[in-house]
Amino acid sequence: QVQLVESGGGLVQPRWSLRLPCVASRSRFSISGMGWYLHAPRKQREMVAKISSGGNANYVDSVKGRFTISRNNAKNTVSLEMNSMRPEDTAVYYCNAEQVYYSNVEMKPHLNNYWGQGTQVTVSS
Fold it and tell me: What are the distances in angstroms from CA 23 to CA 20, 34, 41, 85, 115?
């Protein structure tokens, strides 16, 4: 079981910056991937940025060049640096962690997804 603690949300003006940290609890199994997803009003949850344990990062096109995701594997933390923010960035942001483990009972691997409680980000003047 992995618990994710998010912080850093709030109200900012356009062109300002925010940083969203997320800390994962210790787990028996290592976390393979971590990322941030958003859920805007009347829209489905979608990936903003994700990063593998090896440091390979991916971003949705709308944030490329503006947002940067990073992680510290030893501390099980991930951080999303958001720059040049726009009103359309307004959403609830959720931290995500993926964990792969092998079941000795079922003799097969399993993929678990864990989610933070969500933090509100509002970009408005």
Answer: 10, 10, 26, 23, 11
User: Is the distance from CB of 51 to CB of 79 less than 8 angstroms?
Assistant: no
Cβ-Cβ contacts under 8 Å for 8 (sequence gap 6 or more): 18, 19, 20, 21, 119
Structure tokens at 42: 């009347």
- pLDDT tens sequence across 11-24: 999 999 999 999 99
* DSSP states along 7-70: ---EEE-TT--EEEEEEEPP-SS-EEEEEEEEE-TTS--EEEEEEETT--EEE-GGGTTTEEEE
Average pLDDT over residues 30-58: 94
Q: What is the pLDDT of residues 91-103, one digit of tens each?
A: 999 999 999 888 8
